[in-house]
């Protein structure tokens, strides 16, 4: 499912125009992105948590050339699955 299909399904369930639903989804995603950029966690109870994790600097290899390279420290977004989502995925018929 892509964002357009999601907007169509939500619009149908809520009897809203698809364009308005798409605007709501875009606004939600922008808000989550902004919160994560500020280093905040986003908790959606039952669905899951979006968190920012710090990664230490490390060394690695360029997969194309095999040259060693230094990977800088960075912050990386992660998603931790909530209980309701995990149960729903395991109870698929």
Task: Give structural attributes.
structural constituent of chromatin; alpha+beta; 93 residues; elongated; HU Protein, Chain A; 3 helices; two-stranded antiparallel ribbon; DNA binding; 29% strand; IHF-like_DNA-bd_dom_sf; Hist_DNA-bd; 3-stranded antiparallel sheet; 2 domains
Largest sheet features: 3 strands, antiparallel
Please mark out the parts with pLDDT under 50 across 5 or more consecutive residues, or reply none: none
Shape summary: elongated
- Widest sheet: strand ordering: 1-2-5
Task: Give the name of the CATH architecture of the largest domain.
Answer: Irregular
Q: Residue share in helices?
A: 40-55%
Q: Write down the secondary-structure element order.
A: HHEEEEEH
State the secondary-structure class.
Answer: alpha+beta
Q: Which range does the strand content fall in?
A: 25-35%
CATH topology heading of the largest domain: HU Protein, Chain A
The total number of structural domains is: 2
Query: What's the end-to-end separation, in Å?
Result: 18 Å
Could you give me the name of the CATH homologous superfamily of the largest domain? IHF-like DNA-binding proteins
Rounded Rg: 19 Å
Mean pLDDT: 94
Keywords: DNA condensation, DNA-binding
InterPro entries: Hist_DNA-bd, Histone-like_DNA-bd_CS, IHF-like_DNA-bd_dom_sf
Pfam family, one: Bac_DNA_binding
GO biological process, one term: chromosome condensation
């Amino acid at each position: 499912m892509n964002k357009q299909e999601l907007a169509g399904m939500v619009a149908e369930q809520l009897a809203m125009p698809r364009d308005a639903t798409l605007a709501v989804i875009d606004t939600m995603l922008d808000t989550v992105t902004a919160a994560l950029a500020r280093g905040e966690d986003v908790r959606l109870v039952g669905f899951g948590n979006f968190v920012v994790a710090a990664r230490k600097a490390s060394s690695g290899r360029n997969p194309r050339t095999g040259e060693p390279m230094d990977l800088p420290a960075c912050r990386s977004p992660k998603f931790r699955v909530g209980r309701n989502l995990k149960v729903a995925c395991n109870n698929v018929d």
